[in-house]
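Hey, can you fold this one?
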Amino acid sequence: MSRVAYVNGRYFPRRDAMVHVEDRGYQFADGVYEVCEVRGGRLVDERRHMQRLVRSLNELRIKLPMSLAALSIVLHETAWRNRVIDGIVYLQVTRGVARRDHAFPPPETRPSMVVTANRLDMAKAESIAAEGIAVITLPDNRWERVDIKSVSLLPNVLAKQAAREQGAREAWFVDRDGYVTEGSSSNAWIVTRDGKVVTRPVDHSILRGITRTVLLDALAAQDLELEERPFTVEEAFAAKEAFLTSASQIVMPIVRIDGRPVGNGAPGLLASALRRDFHRYAEFS
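Sure. Predicted structure:
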């Protein structure tokens, strides 16, 4: 089956899907994106993702290319055309095509939109979660508005590559005060020795992860103690558990940080339970 992509109003075989050479996403990374999990053929937390999309677009003063109702149809249709039962749908909106100039193009310039869908190997993901993953830490060298889900991700790319070259699956950024901000493509969490779940509060230094938001609901429903505060790398070394959250990885246990074991060096009981129960608290559409 040929894979399909949506580009600016039409569905194309993936091999024929193209964007203009002067699209501002290509020229300036002048755009935003969202990634929705697909589970059992249904989109997970679409409403929350679209709320965040609108916020990111508003922050960059880019117009929403169509109504949210029409956009929902495109997202579902793209997943269906690619026969994605378990996987992700990727959406990208840029300021559009215009002569290369740093300043905004004329107001009538139409935003560009691309949607793709990919299957994920769920059995492989569960196998990885059962073993847990390693992360490394790196200085946070990103711009100051990472709360906007921009396609400008070069520091994240370099951090992810550095992690892979050291045998890890993720990198945690650390600010100049020694506090963990977030991962290159995930939010960061620890569980203290006395059972408190700790994650950095949302501000301009982290992305307001949708999986993170749902997990807060899960923690509240289970009467687990949460502390939204920055934590240091040293605190993470001493933690009982650590894990990350993202749309594609859900809740992923972390068993090593910078080569040092977390807890007993195995996936934590709480992280594993939260991964198992996560979708009870998510929305499906």
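The radius of gyration is 19 Å. Let me know if you want another pass with a different chain boundary.
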